[in-house]
Design brief:
By secondary structure, the protein is α+β, with helices and mostly antiparallel strands. It has three domains: 1-22 and 187-274, Beta-clip-like (Beta Complex), CATH 2.170.270; 27-170, no CATH class; 317-564 and 572-622, no CATH class. The protein is 46% helix and 12% strand. The chain contains 21 helices and 16 strands. A three-stranded antiparallel β-sheet has the order 2-8-7. The chain is globular and about 70 Å long. It starts with a strand and ends with a helix.
């Protein structure tokens, strides 16, 4: 029997479709023990309550709600780098054993109506890493419980099942600024929503104190795997149990989750969300879903033949035989091997930057990948070898990661010395990569609307980078003012959407606008300004100069386009002198990007989202 949730009525885009749903169990990541309440996940006040050396609570109510976990928690029993999975499992195990009716009625493969996936996850030959984690985790949970209770059982099957349930159903929880701080397992109302690589819904988190009155607009439906239909007896049982789940407040602590539509739905249509990063090609998504959830996705996007444009572009590579001195690409190369080696190269460069703080090395390595391509020696037909130059499509998923890393690394480099002219150049390069990434994500979003959340985030980051660039007075010459326009006076002569968004933002209202009109109007303004100033922004970056603007995602005109700039680095000795009007135009470009990202975020999460908070902080800093 397979479960899903379906729309009970016609639903439009950007509408909440569930009330705030409390978790069955939740646990902070270990890194946030000292800063957040282990029960409700709220930031800790100056005075907090502690049950152990690690677990802390914001109030007596939270302390009492988590008393069992505090009693059994011990780092001696949990020899893992992060214990959130195990602590969430302990909470759920206690809940299960305290509710004997739920335990008696639960079939072996489901507990509280949620699939455990134990049989698939415990196949040692299938995934030894997961198998070992579950075995050791269940042993640690059992040891912890037996130390603190009279429970005498000689096998850990129940602990294994509970831990498997958590690994299968838990989602990462973000706080009000979008920071991942823990995990939670929610009611079947949420967990029965299936995955799609082209989903029609997403979700956000709310604190327990939030007063939101939204009725439940989706209902459960079960399908017999053999017949593909739901029987009346099955549905009767499901609806009876579902009523029990939705009305019973199992724990009462932790962040609530709300589901929101990102596409319109017809009555009876299945509601879907994404279980993985959608900005990955089909093979990567399928591998991730199979590894964690043990299923092969057969959604419309994954089943498309030929592959959708987005999936094709996300994985497209051109290979050139260096010895042939020919710009014609070849097809007889080992794609999987090439991808693995390029992936390792990119990840190692980013890991070096994040772990030892070396942005210069990261920039050099990733810039070389962009401008020179990746050289790989592979066996060819027969006994010989061929030296290949591999180039990725401008919106290849590894290059999206590369643009993100370069925007961050150049931003870090720009803050070394505010008075150094070269740092302004670094800021300009960071802004160029941020804008190019936003344009690339927007390009994919136009072909796959479910990428709206990724597009929203990238536009906000691009807007912030451009506004930071405006603040670098050393870049703008002696004829520019050090001040920027007040936020309340932001206007656009070519579109009304900036004014409309800003007015609604100031008054804390949701923007009422036709999605297509707003998106086309504001993105056209962004394209117009970007085209005018792209050569200025990309002046120090040989790879970006090969594109006419941040909306041009065709392959460079010739394979030597980027090579013509081989070896060039930032020219710190000469900065283009621009006028105050140019600076104001780039300021307006940043505002357009910021507000477009804010509008897309309001569709995904409502007007009071973590991205909305980020936008307010950015505008406050500009003032």
């Amino acid at each position: 029997m397979e479960m899903e949730m379906r729309a009970m009525e016609d639903i439009e885009m950007a509408e909440d479709i569930t009330p705030p749903l409390p978790p069955l169990t939740a646990a902070l990541h270990d890194a946030f023990f000292l800063t957040h309440c282990s029960s409700c996940f709220s930031p800790l006040p100056n005075s907090s309550i502690s049950h152990s050396n690690l677990l802390r609570y914001c109030s007596p109510i939270c302390s009492r709600s988590d008393s069992l976990t505090a009693a059994v928690f011990s780092t001696d029993h949990f020899p893992f780098s992060d214990t959130s999975d195990l602590r969430a499992s302990l909470r759920l195990l206690h809940l299960l054993l305290s509710d004997s009716s739920a335990w008696r009625s639960a079939p072996p493969e489901r507990i509280f109506g949620l699939l455990t996936n134990r049989e698939k996850l415990m196949l040692a030959e299938d995934d030894s890493e997961v198998f070992v984690k579950i075995r050791k985790g269940a042993d640690a949970m059992a040891a912890s419980r037996r130390t603190n209770s009279a429970d005498i059982r000689y096998d850990n099957a129940l602990e294994e099942a509970i831990l498997c349930l958590v690994l299968t159903n838990a989602v990462e929880v973000q706080d009000s600024v979008g920071q991942t701080i823990g995990i939670a397992v929610y009611h079947p109302t949420f967990c029965w929503i299936n995955h799609s690589c082209s989903p029609n819904a997403c979700y956000r988190f709310e604190t327990p104190s939030d007063s939101i009155n939204t009725r439940l607009r989706i209902s459960p439906f079960c399908t017999d795997i053999g017949t593909g239909e739901g029987s009346c007896n099955q549905m009767s049982t499901v609806r009876r149990n579902f009523s029990h789940f939705i009305t019973k407040d199992f724990q009462g602590y932790g962040p609530r989750v709300m589901v929101r539509s990102i596409k319109s739905m017809r009555k009876g249509e299945a509601v879907t969300i994404a279980y993985c990063d959608l900005l990955q090609p089909k093979a990567v998504r399928q591998s991730e879903l199979l590894s964690r959830y043990k299923f092969v996705c057969s959604c419309q996007r994954c089943s498309a033949k030929p592959p959708t444009y987005v999936d094709h572009a996300l994985q497209e590579i051109s290979a050139f035989n260096v010895e042939l001195l020919d710009s014609t690409s070849i097809s007889n190369f080992d794609y999987d091997t090439a991808m693995r080696r390029i992936d390792d190269y990119v990840n190692n460069a980013i890991a070096e930057y994040l772990s030892i703080g070396s942005p210069e090395s990261c920039c050099e390595k990733l810039q070389n990948l962009l401008t020179l391509g990746f050289y790989d020696e592979q066996a060819e037909d027969g006994d010989g070898k061929q030296l290949l130059n591999l180039r990725l499509h401008p919106v290849h998923f590894l290059l999206l990661n590369t643009y993100t890393a370069l925007a961050s690394a150049y931003k870090v480099r720009s803050w070394n010395d505010d008075e150094n002219q070269c740092n302004a150049t670094m800021s300009k390069t960071s802004a160029a990569y941020s804008l190019f990434l936003a344009g690339a994500t927007h390009h994919l979003f136009l072909n796959e609307p479910s990428l709206i959340a990724s597009a929203a985030n990238c536009w906000v980051v691009a807007g912030e980078s451009l506004l930071i660039l405006v603040k670098h007075s050393s870049l703008w010459g002696s004829n520019t003012s050090k001040s920027s326009s007040p936020m309340g006076e932001i206007t656009c002569l070519n579109c009304s959407w900036v004014d409309k968004f800003n007015t609604n933002r100031i008054h804390g209202r949701s923007i009422e606008a036709d999605f297509r009109e707003f998106s086309i109007g504001i993105s056209n303004c962004i394209a117009d300004i970007s085209h005018k100033y792209w050569s200025f922004l990309a002046h120090e970056c040989s790879y970006l100069k090969a594109f006419t603007d941040p909306f041009d995602f065709s392959w460079p005109k010739t394979i030597t386009t980027c090579l013509n700039y081989h070896g060039r680095s930032c020219d710190c000795s000469k900065i283009q002198d621009v006028s105050e009007q140019d600076r104001q135009s780039i300021f307006e470009l940043g505002i357009h990007c910021l507000f477009y990202g804010g509008y897309l975020a309001s569709i995904c999460y409502g007007h009071d989202s973590h991205l909305a908070s980020q936008i307010e902080c950015i505008l406050h800093d500009m003032n």
